[in-house]
Every structure is written in structure tokens, then in C-alpha cells.
Amino acid sequence: MTLASRKTPPVESLGQGLPPPSRGRPHNGRPQGLPLLLRLCALAPILLSACAASPTPTPTQTLTIFAASSLLGAFTEMGDSFESAHPAVSVALNFDGSQSLRAQIEQGAMADVFASANAEEIEALAAQSLIATSQPFAANSLIVILPSANTAGIQSLADLARPGLFLVLAANDVPVGRYSRQALEKLNAQFGADYSTRVLANLVSDESNAKQIVAKVQLGEADAGIVYVSDSVAAPDLLTLAIPPEYNVTAEYPIAALANAPHPELAAEFIAFVLSADGQSILEKWGFRPVK
Fold first, then answer.
1. Rounded distance, CA 48 to CA 33, Å?
2. H helices within the chain, ranges in order?
3. Does position 29 have pLDDT exceeding 60, yes or no?
4. Cα–Cα distance for residue pair 289/285, rounded to 1 Å
5. What integer pLDDT is reported at residue 31 of this predicted model?
6. pLDDT score recorded for residue 132
7. Is 159's pLDDT higher than 60?
8. Same domain, 81 and 163
9. How many other CB atoms are there within 10 angstroms of residue 281's CB atom?
10. Contact indicator for 189, 223 with CB cutoff of 8 Å
11. Residue of 24, 98, 218, 268 with fewest CB within 10 Å of its CB?
């Protein structure tokens, strides 16, 4: 069986035998565009039906993370990465001193995950059955920060005991404040038994978290402060003085899901991300060390 070919007639023959196109309104007096309008109106119910049949987007869930202020840079980056991997999830980050975050949780604040700068706050919450099992995820150490102008001319740790300096630390009930005082006491072995006393005589302000110390030093309201290494990484405009390892204090950071976490599965996923190779890489970038 042979199929006959279908040829397109020459262009000039297509219009043969047809009346010339009319201009303006046709003989029946109706606008030429009306039939098209009627066809569109007829299609409207179908289009609306198709739109109604489209799937409803999944409502956005908010994963709330309470984290020590020294985790600001690292956890902000982690939150962005977690949101990219979970498009339906929004990560809400609450940064403050670990002791303040603990108090907020004790007073009923809702959160999914708590990352503390010390074990004491986690243990206190565990004793009240407010958190599930915790695990360490990072380590940090201390460093002295100075304003970029360094108008006080501080050149060494010994200079911190020079009378007339303005020193800022975190309060003693804040982990970084407690660690700072411990390090100063250790430095007595290097600079004399009264070194820590002379340094603390220059203390002009007790802050509630490390970020406030950084802010005061940046503004030139203090000649020196002691914070975590991670805080100095996040403020590259500041000068720093290293504290030797033998006199430094290592802070281990634990993380836990809250017992009444609104999103326990997401909380477990976020903690797993923090502990993963990618999460640890982000922490290292911001000045943290792996837990030994």
C-alpha cells in the first residue's frame, strides 16, 4: 500500500477565491475580536480548575536553636546551610550567654536545640528533665583582644596588670567570664602571685556575654578584653594577644535537643549536621577545635 504524499499548496493559491479582508467592523456589526474573547471566557472554568488542582505548598516549620553567643558566626552559617537542605524549614537562632539561655528555658521558653558553652548549664537542665541526652561537639579557648588603634600601647600579657587600663570581662557567672579568671590565676605562675589581682583591679565592666566585650573593645570603650578565639575570628579588625596553652582554659561545648522540642525529628537532624564532617568544618573555620 502506498501512501499519497500531502503537499502544501503554493502560498499564492491559499487566498484564491476568498473575498478580500474587510476593514473595521464586519457586515454583522460585531467586533472581530469578540469570538476570541468568547473562547477565552469558555476556557476560564478549565483554567481555574487546573489552578485549584495544584498541590498546596507545605507550611514552613520553624526550628528554634538556642546557642551561646560565641557560636554566632558558626551557627548562622550552619542555619543557612540547613535551610538550603530543608526548603520547608526556617531556622530561628537565639544567641546569648549560656546562663541566660538556660534561664529562658527554665522559665518556659520554647526551643528545639540548646548549644551551650559549658556543661554546667546542660547538666542543670538535665536534672530538671528539660533536655534529652547531650553530647560535646566543639572546643574553644581564650584570647585577649585589643582595639585596632591600641592607644594604651599593650604589647604583652604582662601589660594587662599596668595600672590605669580599662579591662572588660564577662561576669563570673558567664562561662567565658569564669574561664577568663581561671586563666588569669594560671598566669600568676608566669607574672607573679599577685598578677591576677592587679589585672582585675583594671576591670571596669562585667558583661553578660562575649559579644558585648567585643563591641566595647571595637568602640574603644575598653583597652582590652578576654573572649573566645571564635569571637576574635568573627572580629578580624581587632588586635589579639595569644594566651599560651599551658595557661589557657579549654571550653567544651555540649549540644542537646530539648525534651519538649516542638520538632524533635528536625532537632535530631540539626544536631547530626553539627556533628558531621561538614558541620565540623564550619566550626573549624570559625575558630573552634574538635573535641578530643
1. 23
2. 11-14, 34-53, 72-85, 98-106, 119-127, 175-186, 188-191, 195-200, 210-218, 229-233, 264-275, 277-285
3. no
4. 9
5. 46
6. 80
7. yes
8. no
9. 9
10. no
11. 24
Q: Does one domain contain both 238 and 257?
A: no
In terms of domains, do 178 and 224 share one?
yes
Full domain range(s) for residue 261: 61-139+252-285
Q: Are residues 215 and 82 in the same domain?
A: no
Contacts of 234-238 with CB under 8 Å at 24 or more apart are 234/72, 234/73, 234/286, 234/287, 235/145, 237/148, 238/145, 238/146, 238/147, 238/148, 238/214
- For the segment 186-221, what is each residue's pLDDT rounded down to a tens digit? 999 999 999 999 999 999 999 999 999 999 999 999
First to last CA, the chain: 83
Tell me the C-alpha distance between 83 and 163, whole Å. 50
Report if residue 198 sits inside a domain.
yes
In this structure, are 157 and 130 located in the same domain? no
Q: pLDDT tens-digit profile of 141-158?
A: 999 999 999 999 999 999
Buried b / exposed e over 75-107, threshold 16 CB at 10 Å, is: bbebbeebeeebeebebebebbbbbbbbebbee
What does the alpha-carbon distance between residue 237 and residue 240 come to, in Å, rounded to a whole number?
A: 10
Q: How far apart are CA 241 and CA 10, in angstroms?
A: 89
Strands 167-170 and 113-115: unpaired
Locate 146 and state its grid cell.
585589643
> Does 130 share its domain with 271?
yes
Return mean pLDDT, the chain.
86
31 within domain boundaries = no
Structural domain tally of the chain?
2
